[in-house]
Amino acid sequence: MGWWQIAGPSGGMDWSSRSIRDVAKPEPMYGGDGPADSMSIAVDEIISQFEETWERKPYLAEIRATLSFVLGGYEEDLEEGPGFEKVKKGSSSKFDLDAELGG
């Protein structure tokens, strides 16, 4: 299983370092094949549930809202991460979920 340093909330690779051992940042964050595979399985299940119930695939905003809802239950156990500020209760990233959903 591979791991990589992420550059921000999008999960993109941080190409400023050739390997995780070369990282000079004090508190790097990481993504990896295992977590990505687990999330892919969860997203596939969500898609199947939407297709079965609503006869359509979910919108990305619906998946983001679901993830934000679920992560809200972990707020006491998990930190936002170095360089990230807590936006509001129940929001898992810096994007404005209410604006995303049109609310």
TL;DR of this structure?
This protein has 103 residues and is mainly alpha-helical. The protein has helices at 33-54, 60-72, 97-100; strands at residues 3-5, 30-32. The model is unreliable at 90-95 (pLDDT under 50).
Q: H/E series, N to C? A: EEHHH
Residues in helices, as a percent range: 25-40%
- The side-by-side strand order for the widest beta sheet comes to 1-2
Low-confidence stretches: 90-95
Q: What's the total count of β strands?
A: 2
Main sheet attributes: strand count, strand direction, barrel closure: 2 strands, antiparallel
Number of helices: 3
- Which range does the strand content fall in? 5-15%
Rough shape?
globular
Alpha-beta classification: mainly alpha
Query: Average pLDDT, to the nearest integer?
Result: 78
Radius of gyration: 16 Å
Q: Report, as a whole number of angstroms, the end-to-end distance.
A: 40 Å
Write up this protein:
By secondary structure, the chain is mainly α. The relative contact order is 0.13. The chain has three helices and two strands; from the N terminus they run ββααα. A two-stranded antiparallel ribbon has the order 1-2. Residues 90-95 have low confidence and may be disordered.
